[in-house]
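User: I'm preparing a small set of examples for a lab meeting where we compare how different chains pack in three dimensions. I only have the primary sequence for this one, and I'd like the structure in token form so I can line it up with the others. Please keep the answer compact; I'll paste it straight into my notes.
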Amino acid sequence: MAPNDSAQGTGDAGHPAAGRRKAARYFLPVAVAGVAAATIGLVPALASSGDPSLPKITARQLIEKMAASDTQQLSGTVKASAGLGIPSLGGLAGTFGGAGSAGSGGKDGSGAAPENKLMELASGTHTLRVAADGPGKQRVSILDSAAEYSLIRNDRQVWAYDSASNEVYHAKTGAPAAGGHQGRTGKLPATPGDFAGQVLKAAGPTTSVSVDGTAQVAGRDAYQLLIKPKQSGSTIGSVRIAVDAKNGTPLKFTLTPSDGGKAAIDVGFTKVDFAKPAASAFSFTPPKGAKVTEGAGPKAGAPAPKGGPGDLKSASPEDFKGLDVIGKDWTSVARIDTGGGKGLGAAGGAAKSGGPVDAQKFLDSLGDRVSGSFGSGTVFHTRLVNALMTDDGKVFAGAVDKSALIKAADAAR
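Assistant: Understood. Below is the structure token output for the 413-residue chain.
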């Protein structure tokens, strides 16, 4: 079966409410870096080699199988690419002090700081090697043709190394909590399970869930769980999760926008082994001559942050001052008040060369001017996430279309 094609086969639907309540437990924690919320995808090389014949299973049974999965150890290779309709951000990361430039530093003063890699993963094609041994030991290495970036967690020690700049980032994090939960330091989504958790939270009355045939991923037989929004206005067309038929671990995650075409987010294993990785996979010694930067980790005894392995929501709306959520599930929109009550074009009055009005005109050229009961503003588009910036300094963003953004802005008046 070709990658990203819908399988023709079983289609038993079910209501997964009971299973999804505990679904967050099963996702394997994989090594990482400071913030969540990333968009990565899988290249077509991940293709199946035939649709295996497996016993029939309902969607509810499959989600319960995922929830009951207790995979703690694995190693393998993940292929990833993003198709969001935005330009490559690797150069921008370097321009603004990201990991893309040697010697540059993020908020922790190091080009190897984990958060600096997220912009690079938001576009293009990537190959990742991953390994995990329980909640306290994980490793992710991002490979390219000339360099390697590795992020390692070994109990409370977090190391990151960028071979391109020969820089090392080191921090201490809180001890892993019972059940596999870990702190945000070192949290980089890297496997299908890391992406699937947030989607399964939406599996309720606003969601259609079914088993849509079978596939073989990384040499393993899998069921395909198909998730579609029932709500109109979402930019998400469908989510397909290939679930290991034997142990319930997600092997592949594919998100297709409502406009069709190439997947926007598609993550999956090309190779996977569920045996215990060698202890050496989680050890690290800074190379001779490398610049080592110490990062600030959470204080001892500090409460565990919200979110856990497989939970892409590393922070809740309550963590952000001035942020509110309008709507629910697939059509939820984040409202952010930038403060001051003035947009970029409204501040400063008269048009001057290089001034606020010129800046507003430049922004308008990148998006669509819209108006409604809220006033007027500009909508900026990608294939998945759209944002409305109003002239009075508010931002409305979500995986929704333009009309849904305007409706949310009108409702927030």
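A couple of notes for your slides: Residues 356-366 form the longest helix (11 residues). Residues 350 and 357 are 7 Å apart (CA to CA).

User: Perfect, thanks.
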